[in-house]
UniProtKB/TrEMBL annotation:
Protein name, entry field: Probable transaldolase
Entries under Gene3D superfamilies matching the protein: Aldolase class I
Localization per Swiss-Prot or TrEMBL: Cytoplasm
Main EC class the enzyme belongs to: transferase
Amino acid sequence: MKFFIDTANIDEIREAHSWGILSGVTTNPSLVAKETIPFHDRLREITELVSDSVSAEVIALDAEGMIEEGRELAKIAPNITVKVPMTPEGLKAVAVFAKEGIKTNVTLIFSANQALMAARAGASYVSPFLGRLDDIGQDGLELIETIADIFAIHGIETEIIAASIRHPQHITASALKGAHIATTPFKVLEQLFKHPLTDKGIEGFLADWEKRKAK
Ligand code: E4P
């Protein structure tokens, strides 16, 4: 499973990129709204830093508007992936983008049937939202597993992005359930480093080193 970061904040992207783990970036209108720089300028900065997929979401709700916005976004850099909501209009746009060779990420996936339809429309990625399903008492991880099984049975190449990740356990479980990618907030990526035995081990090694120097 690959790591994407779920943010539009360039400092967070730069830091995670420096760890050598980052394969891509996802943004959404709520994340972009937290930033002051114009959207396209920020996308340009991100695509210069991260060479793999950078998802940029359309705002229009009709297919025509999505297609127009998506084509503009795709002009920013070859690694832009146009993020489209899971609606009939969204899938119309995905089908057009697929013919034009523009990569797409169908977002707001909450059922296996939605994922299957998005894949058949030509989506490059589908994004099931784990955390938001957990919030309403449904099992987000079970959804990842079901989508992964269906895609494997039918030889579907659309990649599954585990989205709406809330904690480190979501990452391990998504990898086990067959997600190709987890798009993760910076805070959760930082948490992945942490283990008390790692910290204790470093302290112990340094203390022993200091003792040796004193000899
Ligand atoms: C995915 O691409 C979305 O940007 C994101 O994961 C949504 O997560 P949230 O439920 O924390 O807003």
